[in-house]
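#help-structures
NK: newbie question, is this the right format to request a structure? protein is Cation-transporting P-type ATPase N-terminal domain-containing protein
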Amino acid sequence: MAEDKNGDTKNIIIKLPQDPIKNLTVAEMYDKEKYDLSIMEEGDVFTMLDATREGLTDEEVNERLIKFGHNRLEHKETSAIIQFLLFMWNPLSWVMEAAAIVAIVASNGGGKPPDWEDFVGIILLLLANSIIGFVEQRNAGNAVKALMASLA
């Protein structure tokens, strides 16, 4: 039984397919519109998950590992250089890079020398923006790694 918005209990009838653990996909099993495990009766949850209070046998565990995989987040480590360079590949950086090119090329007309001061200033701002973003992302990534290690 589940409670509605007023706190009254109501019966929830859920049609489970035969042998749901083998016939449903992971997305279907955890689709709250179809099967909301939080409001289902305990017996229905055990039926849906093809489990008991005593747990699973080794054979059942191996079958589920094959079907669902391990319960962990995938983690790919990327190069710090690549991460830094990616901060120079976004719309703001493109505008700054274009401004730097314009400062060198457009100011060179009429026999005037290139505007090196503006060019260097824009490049320094671009590098400062990328460095700050990179450092902040690394700090956040390290905090997440520490949290994941403490949870493990």
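mod (FA): yep, format's fine, and the tokens are attached above. The radius of gyration is 29 Å.
NK: thank you!
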